[in-house]
Amino acid sequence: MIDDLKELHWLMDTLQSIDVGLIVLDKNNRIKVWNSFMENHSNQSSDFVRDKELFELFPDINQHWFRQKLESVFLLKNRAFSTWEQRPYLFRFQHYRPFTGTEPHMYQNLTLIPLASATGEVNHACVIIYDVTEVAAQKKQLQTQHHKLKEMTRRDSLTGLYVRHYWDERLANEFERYSRNHIARTLVMFDIDNLKEINETFGYDAGDLAITQVSDTLTKTQRNTDFSGRYGGDKMVILLTDVDEANSVTFAERFRKTIEQQILSFNGNDINITISLGIAESSDDYESPHDWVHIAEQAMQVAKENGRNQVALASGLS
Fold this sequence. Notes:
Layout: H1 2-17, E1 21-26, E2 31-34, H2 36-42, H3 46-49, H4 54-57, H5 63-76, E3 80-82, E4 108-116, E5 122-131, H6 133-154, H7 164-181, E6 185-192, H8 195-202, H9 204-221, E7 227-232, E8 235-241, H10 245-261, E9 263-266, E10 269-272, E11 275-281, H11 289-305, E12 311-313
Parallel strand pairs: 11-12
Antiparallel strand pairs: 1-2, 1-5, 3-4, 4-5, 6-8, 6-11, 7-8, 9-10
Helix pairs in contact: 8-9, 9-10
């Protein structure tokens, strides 16, 4: 008998000292066991929580989800699991580890275990809570780094705009969406007037600076829902989503005037920059995204042939 009590004492001491949360609940969701991990992180003593209903003490728990988990354990007499990726936590606990200082809460994995009596009845369930905040933080950092690297491959190093192949993918997606919903989208293509003369007079560094200044202005001018790319050389494109031709003219003129009013300073020289723009609204007449781009480019060429520093519409092409 004494040996049995010693073994029970060792068992209870182990359950209290392990670095995981351990809870035992009955079928009425009343707390029967609440170990030291749970005491330390919840600031609720085992004496206080014992025999109290879990959801009354912790109303922030997602009851519908957790009740379903518990019911499956009692009914099927099988274990149930949940990872932080499925649901970040059961209890919104703070964390105290320096590595995870950027995380807003403790991330948790759960294991729910049926506890059978001597007669085989399952009237209690054990919930084990693992602190996996470090694992979650590391994975999230890796995902963030992967996203940044992926984004870098999509961006042109000089302008920060999307590179040609990725912009083409985005345009193809918008072309397909238009074929389904017929909500207007407008493509604007433009290039820098007289860039060749700037390169020849001031050098290619001046030309690159002109391209950078124009692309920076474009990025600041466009909406979050628009996307722009460097199509080649000084030729750039922007797709205005949910915008028809008339409204795109307002955007294009505002952008053109902003560029016209800017002065590019290079090695003590003030250089005036202008752009010529072509506009093509989405249309059922285009059989492919390539057709759409071709028409916008034709409109841009008309703007250049008519004197540069102006906007031309695809609808005005003969």
